Amino acid sequence: MKEIWENKRYRSMIVLGLWGFFIIFIFVLAAFGNNNQKVTEEPKKEKEITIQDLLNAYKNPLNTINYEITITENDTKIILEGTYVLNKHTGYLTTATEVISYRCENRLCYKTFIDHEEPMDTYLFEGIKDPLYIAKFADNLVLQDENEDKKSYKYTEITSDGTTEYEVITEKQTINNEETYQISQINITTPNLRIETKVNLELGQVNVDENNNQ
Q: Residue 30 belongs to what domain range?
């Protein structure tokens, strides 16, 4: 053994072999450590955003809903363009004959002018004309159609007055450099009424807990 070690050629081969064994040993330890880490680490699960969560955001009075509501009733069409924030509607009502500036809160509406207001006879957002009305049926909405950028949720209600169809369309948007879905359109159809609401939500402060409550 001494003679082999004194031989430069054999000594170099032995040193090279020891280094090779050491390197292989390090690689084996590293591979074992990575595999063990993969087994012990649990993947992070992100909370799934449901249609209920999205509609809850629209009910938050601190958020701003920008809307364009087209109401077609028999042969009459009106358009409501405005915003809803802090439980108050402000915007413009367009009919075939006039354009009215309005303010609605506490279930009362007013025509607004530069220096005064006049009460209106009707509340513009009664019943299904309310852009938040669909939130009552959040648990009934079922995903019907979807593609990479859009989803459509629907619910059909049958009563003695006829059939009412509800549809909520969500579209993928980028908010704070993150891709997420937001409600873009709400459609309600009855035997003699069609309401198409285009909406855009500006977040103020939204708190959605694990039970989908605010």
A: 2-40
CA distances to 17, 31, 69, 143 from 154, rounded to whole Å, are 71, 50, 19, 7
Residue 76 pLDDT > 70, yes or no?
Answer: yes
Distances (CA, A) of 67 to 24, 110, 174, 186: 66, 18, 19, 10
Residue 20 lies in a domain: yes
CA–CA separation, 7 and 10 (whole Å)? 5
Q: How far apart are CA 138 and CA 54, in angstroms?
A: 9
Same domain, 173 and 104: yes
Residue 83 lies in a domain: yes
For 171-195, b/e burial (b = at least 16 CB within 10 A) is eeeeeeeeeebbbbbbbbbbeeeeb
Helix, strand or coil, per DSSP, at residue 67: strand
- Look at residue 9 and tell me whether its pLDDT is greater than 80: no
27 and 65 co-located in one domain: no
Number of domains in the chain: 2
Q: What would the two tokens of residue 44 be?
A: 């992070």
Stretch 93-120: mean pLDDT: 95
Q: pTM score, two decimals?
A: 0.70
